[in-house]
Amino acid sequence: ERFKQSLSKTRANIGDKIVNLVKTNKKLDDDFYEELEEILIQADVGVETSLELVENIRKSARKNKITDSEKVMDLIKEETARILGVYDTSLRVETDEKPAVILVVGVNGAGKTTSIAKLAYRFKQENKKVLLAAGDTFRAAAIDQLQIWADRVGVELIKHQEGADPGAVVFDAINAAKARKADILIIDTAGRLQNKTNLMKEISKVRNIIEREIPSAPHEVLLVIDATTGQNAVSQAKIFKEATGVTGIILTKLDGTAKGGIVLSIAKELNIPVKLVGIGEGMEDLRTFDPVLFAEALLE
Ligand code: GDP
Questions:
Q1: Residue 290: which of 280, 300, 278, 276 has the closest Cα?
Q2: Contact 287 CB / ligand 1 (< 6 Å)
Q3: Taking Cα atoms as reference points, which of 28, 283, 274 lies closest to residue 151?
Q4: Which of 88, 213, 244, 279 is the most buried (most CB within 10 A)?
Q5: Residue 233 Cβ contacting ligand 1 at under 6 Å
Q6: What whole-number distance in Å separates Cα of residue 285 and Cα of residue 282?
Q7: At 262, is the secondary structure helix, strand, or coil?
């Protein structure tokens, strides 16, 4: 229910408009599909993805001999879920070797710190021992903020001083996690996009250290992106994907944005699964992404 509620603005931007279109266009003709395409593109679904989605709906309608627009709603839901449904949204944290390492990347302000706290909280609820690493040593505020969250959730944070080598923090954190038999280590990274090249170098250095210490790690590289930035989020994700080998997306601030359509855009154009969505500022406000639920919440 919370999830559905959090999508209300996106629903107004997509679902309500489609319902309206169905009301005014009784027949499934070219006009109908053109307008449907327009609605999707306007709602940040992305041009490529919108075209493909509409084409799939058109084909499916033809195959099922549907000519009445009212009956097309179910097809739209089905095809939306199908585009998203090919991905595995589970987190790979059940590893033989401990700890499972989750590297969290993304630009400042996207919701990285909050998402790390939410993840830590979730794992703690599952009775897992979690350790955090303050890998963003560029901003003192980032370290402080993560410490506040670590205390709130009740997990330990491994940190160095501002300006320290992020690689050294990560090295220490891995050893601490091994010594304390932690199940999961979640590593924060810097997110200053003003200097992309250096940032990507820094993250790949951190990645190399992780791999050197635990060959099967990182088990997840989660990119945090802010849903309210719409199509910009997609181009940002491309940069991170190339440089850091992202395995999944945490899409934050889905509550309160009308741009939830980018979920589709990300899945299709980047071929990376949205694994988790942020639907609020509290530590419980992180949900595993469910494509069918998403399609239904969007179009009901
Ligand atoms: P960071 O700079 O990437 O570490 O970003 P923060 O974690 O500090 O988050 C930036 C702001 O976004 C904070 O005010 C958070 O409370 C807020 N925020 C993060 N995730 C969500 C979310 O899913 N929904 C809402 N409404 N706010 C969020």
A1: 276
A2: no
A3: 283
A4: 279
A5: no
A6: 5
A7: helix
